[in-house]
């Protein structure tokens, strides 16, 4: 998605609105693209989850931490599918594989370090991944995109963070409740001493981010599109182009 493009190619109807209205559009975009999105996302999530589980020998909490650190890298696959879905294009695993260099390996160090700690990464990730802005113009571009949307992006990240934590605790608690009763054993001691439960804990976390992360990325992507509409009047241009095309 270059900085300048034909906005009439969008399959979605663009409207300037609040950041929260834009995030709702993102959720609906994620729902409409769900079959191809989750198919491509699971292609990368499952191997990363299995790879992280090989670190159990070092510490029981390490696999979950590695998954948490890998989320910005996993988000790149989600954003790739969503950016195509915005133009009405379905994405197959073959399409993803053909674009693997661009999607998986570009900006790898920055993705796993600086962007992991960014509280508004879902809003700014499209700038890094889709605009191909030069390094010299990047800071100015990010500042422009974040203007007036920083607070909303931060609130959205916090909301999804709490949702992720709540869902993880709920599923872990459900697992604990259905286990045979064991006296004088805390849930922490049980997970630490039982390899099966350690795998289950990591698997539960993978399930949680597997379900929630596409919605988080989609909400941020829609907020980014909303900023482009506000800055470049995409909604007006889209209406004119469609009117004259008709």
Alpha-carbon distance between the termini? Answer: 25 Å
Q: Radius of gyration in whole Å, from Cα? A: 20 Å
The helix count comes to 12
**Can you give the helix content as a percent range?**
over 70%
Count of domain modules = 1
Low-confidence stretches: 235-246
| Strand composition percent | under 5%
Structural class: mainly alpha
Morphology = globular
SSE order, as H and E? HHHHHHHHHHHH
Integer average pLDDT: 82
How many E strands? 0
For the biggest sheet, the summary is: none
Task: Characterise this structure.
Helix 2 packs across helix 11 (195-232), helix 7 packs antiparallel against helix 8 (135-146) and helix 10 packs across helix 11 (195-232). This protein has helices at 19-32, 34-53, 62-85, 93-98, 100-105, 108-112, 121-130, 135-146, 150-177, 187-193, 195-232, 234-245. It is an all-alpha fold. It has twelve helices and no strands. Mean pLDDT is 82; it is low at 235-246. The chain has one domain (7-245).
How is the secondary structure organized here?
Layout: H1 19-32, H2 34-53, H3 62-85, H4 93-98, H5 100-105, H6 108-112, H7 121-130, H8 135-146, H9 150-177, H10 187-193, H11 195-232, H12 234-245
Helix pairs in contact: 1-11, 2-3, 2-11, 3-7, 3-11, 7-8, 7-11, 9-11, 10-11
Keywords:
246 residues, 0% strand, mainly alpha, globular
């Amino acid at each position: 998605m270059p900085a300048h493009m034909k906005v009439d190619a969008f399959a979605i109807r663009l409207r300037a609105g609040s950041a929260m209205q834009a995030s709702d559009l993102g959720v609906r975009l994620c729902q409409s693209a769900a079959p191809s999105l989750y198919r491509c996302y699971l292609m990368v999530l499952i191997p990363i989850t299995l790879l992280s589980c090989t670190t159990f020998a070092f510490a029981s909490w390490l696999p979950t931490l590695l998954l948490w650190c890998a989320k910005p890298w996993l988000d790149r696959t989600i954003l790739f599918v969503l950016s195509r879905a915005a133009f009405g294009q379905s994405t197959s695993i073959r399409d993803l594989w053909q674009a693997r260099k661009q999607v998986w390996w570009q900006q790898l160090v920055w993705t796993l370090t600086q962007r992991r700690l960014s509280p508004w990464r879902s809003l700014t990730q499209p700038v890094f991944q889709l605009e191909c802005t030069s390094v010299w113009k990047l800071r100015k571009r990010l500042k422009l995109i974040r203007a007036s949307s920083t607070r909303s992006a931060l609130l959205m990240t916090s909301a999804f963070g709490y949702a992720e934590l709540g869902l993880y605790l709920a599923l872990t608690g459900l697992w604990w409740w259905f286990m045979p009763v064991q006296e004088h054993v805390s849930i922490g001691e049980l997970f630490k001493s039982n390899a099966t439960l350690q795998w289950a804990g990591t698997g539960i976390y993978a399930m949680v981010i597997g379900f929630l992360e596409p919605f988080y990325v989609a909400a941020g992507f829609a907020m980014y599109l909303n900023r482009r509409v506000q800055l470049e009047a995409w909604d007006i241009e889209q209406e004119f182009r469609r009117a004259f095309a008709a």
